[in-house]
Specification:
five-stranded antiparallel β-sheet; 5 strands; globular
Length: 86
């Protein structure tokens, strides 16, 4: 991904509203994987609205530094577009 905090924020700004998957460091060699919608980007953090059926919390936020230090790994899900036949 990007190498500076500004580049990370800009790339996330372009993906607001898209579905993403996050792998976060849960401590003691545990990785937590969550998915949801990138809800918003702010000067120091970004927020993700998680899928309700899979998680007990509704939203999480991470800082851009978490991505820079690879504490959080983020991937944008490419949704397959359905085509309608008439």
């Amino acid at each position: 991904m990007a190498k500076t905090l500004i580049e990370i924020k800009r790339s996330l700004d372009e993906n607001v509203g898209k579905r993403i998957t996050i792998q976060a460091n849960g401590g003691r060699k545990k990785m937590i994987e969550r998915s949801g919608l990138l809800e918003g980007t702010y000067p120091a953090v970004f927020t993700i609205k998680l899928d309700e059926d899979q998680n007990t919390v509704e939203r999480v936020s991470y800082s851009y530094t978490d991505i820079l230090t690879e504490t959080v790994k983020l991937s944008v899900c490419e949704e397959a577009k359905a085509t309608e036949q008439v």
